[in-house]
Design brief:
307 residues, mainly alpha, two-stranded antiparallel ribbon, 11 helices, 5 strands, 51% helix
Length: 307
């Protein structure tokens, strides 16, 4: 018969005065360093925007911002832009958590670490502010804001917003527009499935794949008749003027590893014009890195723009 092992818990020994002092010092270091992402992001943003990585006197510069980040800090372009976006989020929501406490002191609740900024980084400024206000309102008394709470509120906000737009899509097309019964049923069925994907967080089908299929579908429909104005650019007169002047807009699709262009007929089909850079003949690319390199080559043409 084996003997039962009994663990005797030692009584907790309070910190000594010296240990408590050291704890306070270390706590200050952690808090300062957690917020260092704001200073780092701010510095990187200014270096990038003003192209301060150029040469100066005898100091050799760098040709691009990514080259500067990799050579000096061994930081990738994506990581550098993550820090910049985190800084931008913090600046954008700075006043959203501003309130007075019981002593009439002004308290500002803003992101204190990069993790809290990530769920907001890819959103529009007004969306960031709305979500952060909701986060502050949902923090229980005595509790702190967490990255998990920000992510939860952001997902709920975006889900409800998207579902509302999906429901409104049924009302956008005027009732007097001609549409066959089967096509109307197919459209309604698609919207119903899209609502399910939103509820599931796009786990079965990614947003990128859905957009890719819709872009290709729109392009196919547009090519079957006369010119259809692209609603994605509705009201953007500058973009229309650029395209009429002969410029071409391109963008990268990381899901399919292809480069797409804005077609005059509407939509974003895959770019298949080897005469302008021999890009179309090698898509899809094997890696994201190869696609980005080809995209940079396209951007060397002054008549090509990032769309």
């Amino acid at each position: 018969m084996s003997e039962e092992i009994v663990v005797h818990k030692e009584p907790e020994i309070p910190l000594t005065a010296a240990e408590d002092k050291r704890f306070s010092q270390l706590l200050g270091v952690v808090r300062d360093d957690l917020r260092a992402f704001i200073r780092v992001g701010n510095a990187l943003a200014e270096i990038n925007e003003r192209r301060l990585y150029r040469s100066a006197g005898e100091r050799k510069g760098w040709p691009t911002f990514p080259a500067f980040c990799k050579d000096v800090f061994d930081v990738s372009k994506s990581r550098a832009h993550e820090l910049i976006r985190a800084y931008q989020v913090t600046e954008n929501v700075r006043n959203c958590g501003r309130f007075e406490d019981q002593d009439d002191d002004i308290i500002e609740l803003q992101p204190v670490n990069e993790a809290q900024c990530r769920p907001l980084a890819g959103l529009q400024p007004d969306q960031q502010r709305q979500i952060w206000r909701t986060v502050i309102q949902n923090v229980e008394p005595g509790r702190k804001v967490t990255a998990s709470l920000v992510s939860k509120v952001a997902k709920k906000f975006l889900g409800e917003s998207t579902k509302s737009k999906v429901r409104n899509a049924r009302e956008i097309v005027p009732a007097d527009r001609k549409i066959s019964g089967p096509l109307k049923e197919a459209f309604d069925a698609f919207l119903a499935e899209l609502e399910k994907e939103v509820d599931a967080g796009f786990k079965a089908t990614s947003r990128e794949v859905i957009v890719e299929h819709l872009d290709q579908l729109r392009h196919t429909i547009a090519e079957a008749g006369t010119l259809i104005e692209d609603t994605a650019f509705h009201g953007k007169d500058d973009v229309k003027k650029l395209e009429k002047a002969g410029y071409t807009l391109f963008r990268m699709d990381k899901t399919s590893k292809t480069i797409k262009f804005h077609s005059p007929a509407g939509g974003w089909p895959v770019y298949e014009d080897p005469a302008q850079g021999a890009v179309g003949s090698i898509m899809p690319f094997s890696t994201i890195k190869e696609m980005e390199a080809a995209f940079l080559e396209l951007m060397k043409n002054p008549m090509h723009l990032r769309g």
